Task: structure prediction
Amino acid sequence: MSVCQQANPKNLPVFLYLHEKKGDMYKIVLFLAIMLTSRTYSIAQDNVVNALQRQQNRNFKKDNDTSTNWNWKHGGMMSFNLAQGSLSNWAAGGDNFSLTVNGYFNYFLFYRKERHSWDNNVDVNLGYVQSTSLGSRKNDDRYDFISKYGYKMDSVGKWYLTGLFNFRSQFFDGYNYNNNLIDFTSSFLSPAYFILSAGFDYKPDTKLSIFMSPLTSRWILVLNQKLSDKGVYGVPAGTKSFNEIGSFITVNYNNTIAKNINYKGRVDLFSNYKSNPQNIDLFMTNLFSFKINKYFSATYSLDLIYDDDVRLFGINKDAPGLQSKSLIGIGFLKQIESKKRKS
Result:
C-alpha cells in the first residue's frame, strides 16, 4: 500500500479528501503562518536593537571625543564686512545711518582635565565709516576678554563651582553726534570694566553656559582726565576708578541653528547692591553668520547696552539711555581651524 493510500484509506479524490480534512489543514497553515510571522518579527526586532546599539555607540564615542580625547582646544574666526549700519544713543560714537567697513576677530582657548575646566575667549571689534556730513571716523570699537575656571561639582558634569574674570574697554576716542554737534564721550580705558566674580556655572551641553554669582566685584575705570573731571560712567568727578559690589549673571550661547547659519550670543546682567539694585545693567551681543561659500558670508549683529550710571543722553545729556548698534553686511569670513591636543 502506498503512502497516499495509507493517508487516504477510502481512496477519495484528492479534492474531496482535502475538503474532508480542511479543519486539520487550516490548523497546519495557521501554525506555519504564526511561526513565519514570529520569525519575521524576531528578525525585525533584532535589527532595531542592533541599530539602537550602533547609535548609542556612536553617541558614546562622540561624547568621549568632546570630553576625554583632548585637554586643550583652541580656534576662532575673523571677518571683514562692508556694512550698512544704524546707531542710537551709542556712547562709542557713530552715524545714525552709514556705510562702514568692519572687522571682527574671535579667539578661544579651552582646557579640560578630570574635574577641572578653564574657558578663555576674546572678541575684538573695529569699524570705520566715511560720512559725507562729518567725514571719516570709527563706528565700532570694543575688545572684550573673559576667563572662567570651574571645578565640576557632580558626576554628570553640568554644574561647576566657578571663578570668573572679565575685562572690557575700547581702543580709540569716541564721540556722540547729535544735531551736528560733536561731544567727546569715551577713550582708551575710559571707560574700562573689570569684573571678578565667584559663583556657579551651569553647562547642559557644549552650546550653552549660564553663570550665576551672588557676589561680584566690578571696577569702573575712567583714566582720561577730561572725562574724569566730568564724573561720567558712575565714577565720581575727579577720580579715575570706582568699585561696585553686586550680583552678576552671564549667559553664552553658540550654535549652528540651521544649515549654514550660525548664532553667537551673550547677555550680561549686573545689579549694584550699593545703589539702586533694581536698575539692572545690561550688556548684550548677538551675531548671526549666513555662510554663502567657503570664504564669503552675510552677517547681522545687534548690540545693546544699558547702564544706569552712563548719563550722556536726553535733552540735557544727563539721563541714561539704551545704547543700540546694529550692522548688516556681506564680506570675507574665515574660521580659525579648531585644534585639540592632549597634555
